Protein 1
Amino acid sequence: MKKFLLLIILVVIIASTSFSQLFENENCGANDNFIGNIFKHPWEKNNELLLNYLDTIGYKTDTFKTFYIVPVKFWIYRKADSTGGLNEKEIKGNIQYLNYYYSLNNTGIQFYLNPEIEYINKNKYFFMRYILQGPFQTFKHKTKGNINILFVDKLELFKFGKKVKDYNGTFNTISKGVIICSKTSTSSLSHEIGHFFGLKHPHRHWKRGKRKQESVDRDKRFHRIFNHKKNCEKNGDGLCDTPAEPDLTKYSDKNCKYTGWNVVDNWGVVYKPSTINIMSYTKNRECRNLFTKGQVAVMLKTASKNKYSKYWDINSAKSVNYKFDSFEPDFSVESASEIFIGSPQNHTFHLIYAKKKRNRSLDKEDWLYFLNKKDGQVFEINISSGKLKKAQLNIEVYFENNLIEKKSILNEKTSNIKIINPKKGKYFIKIEKISDEKSITDYNIEIKE
Ligand SMILES: [Zn+2]
């Protein structure tokens, strides 16, 4: 009962703070006022602390290094008849773009999909109401230790019974859940997860007065008795390496060009924004692909403070069983990864983190496909041990939905399957782990002509 009351109070708080956004033209839905006012971080007034933090953890801008691998749980809303919602190919696309944008910018964070995808088949949530329904669903559907993403067809804001706005996505600062529309830009999920890791919009409070607005001038300081800090360390997103900017929905075009040439800040200085920052509202969301070093620092610092970070931190002993491979998700025909002839791949079967031990599931099925370009070209599928323990495996090869070869590999170090007289076309390979060790295992696979 106590829990229920608390939930009601939280929902009311979220609903009321959301109303204030009506006047702020928020397209993403994550409430900047709320993120900004309640959760103050020590680095907010000192960017140098942030950059020092990167030095202490051995971060290097130009070197790709992973610090955290984080499980992501998808909750997919569909119509009552189970139609609509993301298909498995789209699910894979979402994870791939998420990992792409986070590796492109050397954020040190990578993500793996929790293969236990949950489907919620209810007409009333398929078009989700931003107020009440949205927050409530993020509290209801969450797996601890994962980033929970709720995919809906629409996220609608109603005011007095009338729809006034569609959002692309939102991050709930209390439940830490993300709601996002199924059909949205490739950078939207990265944006919402940016909020999860503590980032704010660079245009935050851009319409406010001199106290709240971020100045274009990077060296402008406050002149108050106890505050001589730089304006850019406190206002906007609190980061001086993201330029001050207006809401770019209005001031950029579909070709990613800035169009607010005469828009000035409160000190009369014309804005010089970047139109590619993932946390910006660039009109064409596909323009966005950048996280700055300051943003990376906020994300890594926030990740380190998360209570589940020891399971995400790749240098922690507790994380060894959670290492995914870069071909995932590949647990179905639809999400199968391509393997090219002559290019070996290493795959893992790992554990999926969840707070409760009994909820920790295994990734235990991989699907691959390859294209055989000519009739009669004999090929061979080689499976061998990798660096870790090799599990016992069942291998199945399919051509045009028919099972054509099958083999179990128990304790052999290497094993192969020959396909004699194959036809031209697309072949699928299913690799299933049949042994039940709870630790991570891996295998190498190569197709040879
Ligand atoms: Zn946002």
Note: The pocket of zinc ion is lined by residues 28, 30, 191, 195, 201 (CB under 6 Å).
Protein 2
Amino acid sequence: MTVNIRTIQHYMYCPRRFGLLELNQDWSENAFVVMANIMHERVHSGKHELHSKNKIELSSVSLYHDELDLYGVADCIEFVRSKTGTYIEQLGDKFDVNIVEYKPRQPDSGAANETDIIQVFAQKLCADYIWKCKSTGYIYYGDTRRRVKLQLNEEYDKYYSLLQKLISEMNEILESGNIPVRIKGQKCSGCSIKDVCVPQNKKYTVRSLVKEESV
Ligand code: SF4
């Protein structure tokens, strides 16, 4: 099944949340979601292209990988002119390709969350596929105004196997149509759909709920 990159984070946060969002189309927003949305709206408010002598910067770039069945949208892709970079046919020169994802808050540890890293890694696979390059991933944090470089090429194998495992688990849920139960110990306080979810340790499908309603 084709996977939208943004859903991988939902699954990593909580498989039940992923099931509710993807199978039930449940949605609700809390302060964290609104904050992230405002930041992304600023980034995506009208696609823009900035051209300078050494750099081309594109926002809201659609990405895909036909062989991995992945697609998504990158906040920003930078093409930095470089003699040692990849020749990008559409731009007629050699470039280093940078992916920049925007996040509102930097974790207290200073290091990026694994869920954010996997999101950018999936974008990187798509960018590498499209432009036949070896792109670099960054996260820019709005609160600290810092940009953190991710070790995606250095730890490629580790992130690749993790991503494959996640995608296969997500596909299992989508194919079964079963919304997973809440994992024991799952942290729910920051979840935007907790009022919809009402954590319960009971497996159900959309069909079984409809049956219950009609009894
Ligand atoms: S409330 Fe908890 S169990 Fe339910 S979707 Fe959110 S994080 Fe998952």
Note: The chain has one domain: 3-214.
